[in-house]
Amino acid sequence: MPEGDLQEATRSTAAPGAGLTEREDFRATSDPALQGGEGRGVELLSCRQLYQLWERQQWATQDLDFAQDRVDWHERIEPDERYARMYGLSSFFVGEQRVAAELGPMMWACPAEEERVFLCTQIADEARHVAFFDRFYSEVGVLEADHLEGRLQETSEHLKEEFGALFDEMLHRRVVRLAQEPQDTEALVEAVTIYHMVIEGMLALTGQHFIIDYNERMGTLPAFVQGFTNVARDEHRHVAFGARFLRDMVAADERHRTAIQRTLAEVAPVADGVLRPNWVDPSEDDLELFGVRISETRAFAANALQRRLRAIGLG
After folding, report:
1. Residue 268 and residue 79 in contact, taking contact as beta carbons nearer than 8 Å
2. Which end of the chain is more exposed for a tag (fewer CB within 10 A), N or C?
3. How far apart are CA 58 and CA 160, in angstroms?
């Protein structure tokens, strides 16, 4: 995409209430899941272009005013729904904090300087996302804890076993390997596959899509929607980096194609479990949560992954 077009795309968005996938600033990330077609032949931005886009898409958590959100949370949303909403957000808050640390060894292991520069921006983004959730939880009065560490601990109590397996075992194992052997490109490809393609691309962006849509339809939590929309845009940019990186690695060495396929086969069952709340039986695909069937969320996540894999050159 020429630089002039890129600048224009970052300034232009769809009308309020339009789906995130229709927003021009989201499409500007070049995430294959937001483009037309099936993902093949999508033009992926370079790391330099993604860095430039990061500079143009800056936002500040301190600009958000949560006054109406506090009223909505305590006066318009019933206790049972408050619990369900809080439960659904727990993995986002803790996940942002976990990966801010995990990205360090991944950044150092990247073979190209422009890749390392972009991943530095992602580390900054993840820290900002932690700050966003911390402000929301604190100023809206969602949790009992009165400091960041306490709020992280309180939300951690609601995480599923599969979340721990995905972050603390599967991803962490690769990151530890990279800290010890930064030249292990297969471990790096596996880590990017787990984080950018599965954790961010499948799980986080799927949850963000439906959570934002529900709040917009209900007219609740306006500052949260504004901030969470910015978080989602950041993460589409991260996923676009992951797609570009993996495509280049597959083109450079066929072993990396096998590494991606092997990793997806390992993590897919665990990722599927993360999409289901603790109280939902695995067989209940037709159960509705916030107006959307679980089968719809699973299909949305799977379709997005397939588009990205085709852009990488798989499938």
Report:
1. no
2. C
3. 32
3-state secondary structure 142-184: CCCCCCHHHHHHHHHCCCCHHHHHHHHHHHHHHHHHHHHCCCC
CA distance 7 to 154: 41
- Backbone Cα Rg of the chain: 19
> How far is CA 303 from each of CA 9, 176, 216, 310, 311, rounded to the nearest angstrom?
25, 31, 23, 11, 13
- pLDDT tens digit string along 143-180? 888 899 998 888 888 788 888 899 989 999 999 999 99
Sign for the pseudo-dihedral over CA of 242, 247, 248, 249: positive
Q: Which residues pair with 289 in a beta bridge?
A: 292
**pTM of the predicted model, to two decimals?**
0.90
Residues 77, 220 contacting (CB under 8 angstroms): yes
Domain boundaries, the chain: 3-312
Task: Quickly tell me which residue has 């306006």 as its tokens.
Answer: 222
For 269, how many CA atoms within 13 A lie in the half-sphere containing its CB? 3
Mean per-residue pLDDT for 259-287?
80
Q: For residue 152, what are the contacts with CB-CB under 8 A and spacing of at least 6?
A: 93, 94, 97
| Amino acid in the structure at residue 92 | F
How is residue 257 written in tokens?
């194609």
Quick: pLDDT tens for 123-150: 999 999 999 999 999 999 998 888 999 9
- DSSP string over 75-129: IIS-HHHHHHHHHHHHHHHHHHHHHHHHHHHHHHH-SSHHHHHHHHHHHHHHHHH
Helix pair angle (294-312, 205-218), 10° resolution: 130
Contact 241, 200 (CB under 8 A): no
| Domain 3-312 in this protein, CATH class | mainly alpha
Residue whose C-alpha is closest to residue 125's, from 230, 220, 248:
230
